[in-house]
Amino acid sequence: MQIRSAEFITSGRGLADCPEWELPEFALIGRSNVGKSSLINLLANKKLLAKVSSVPGKTRQLNFFRMNGAWSLVDLPGYGYSKTAKTEKFDFNELVGDYLEQRENLHHVFVLIDSRLPPQQIDLDFIAWLGGVGASFTLIFTKEDKQSAAKTQATVTAFQASIPPGLRCSPTVVTTSSLTSTGRNEILRRIEEML
Ligand code: GDP
Question: Ligand 1 pocket test: which of 43, 52, 151 has the largest number of ligand atoms within 8 Å of its C-beta?
Answer without folding.
Answer: 52
